[in-house]
Amino acid sequence: AALDWNALATGRGGRLHARLEAHIGRADVLALTGDLLPADVRSIMPATAASLSLQADGNVSRLTLDRLEADVAGVVRLTAKGNAADLLTGQRSGHFDWTLRTGNPAPLGRLLPSSLAFPRGLSARGDLRFQGDDYRANLRVSASGGRLDVGARAGLSSERYAAQVTARDFPLGAFLPDLPLGDFSGSLKASGQGFD
User: Fold this and answer.
1) pLDDT digit string (tens) for 106-162?
2) Residue of 103, 55, 95, 56 lying closest to 78 (CA atoms)
3) pTM of the entire structure?
């Protein structure tokens, strides 16, 4: 990593170059958490608990996230990339895309109540866009042949918000195995003003 401190001030130039490759093992997590980590979690933790890869360049006037990859013990993998501009001003803008995929959810399942589950092969992708105080996000979750689409937007200054959720054959029973639920299709829209 290389950091010119001017990269943290608007209009001062300077560049940040960050490259990070990190692997956190079971021994590292146990050393950091000590007895705070429950015994049932310690017993299922794999040798390599997590890995992180990051590549970013720029400054507060123009920042590019070339790559973010995080893997938690083969259970879940997150990737993201995007860019942002004028981060410290009211004219800030940006766009980030991300994906999330589950691998083997069995270790996670041992931590959840038996009434909740994560199906193998669950995936999600989405994006976040912002311009000034206006934010928009989209999300698609896919599981067992079904999908759930969510679109949301919020204006922080105006305190206006709106969201739309649409499900097509979304397998609720795969997430709530104790309930006699099948696939769900439907939609919901909500909007309003005021955050308190």
Assistant:
1) 777 777 788 888 888 899 999 999 999 999 999 999 998 999 999 999 999 999 999
2) 103
3) 0.82
Q: Which structure tokens are listed for 39?
A: 């015994």
Place of tokens 């958490």: 33
E-only strand ranges, the chain: 2-3, 16-25, 48-59, 62-72, 76-85, 93-102, 123-131, 134-143, 146-155, 160-171, 183-193
Question: What is residue 179's DSSP assignment?
Answer: S
Question: Per-residue pLDDT averaged across 89-97, rounded?
Answer: 95
Query: With contact defined as beta carbons under 8 Å apart, do 99 and 111 qualify?
Result: no
Q: How far apart are CA 113 and CA 9, in angstroms?
A: 47
The C-alpha atoms of residue 6 and residue 92 are separated, in whole angstroms, by: 18
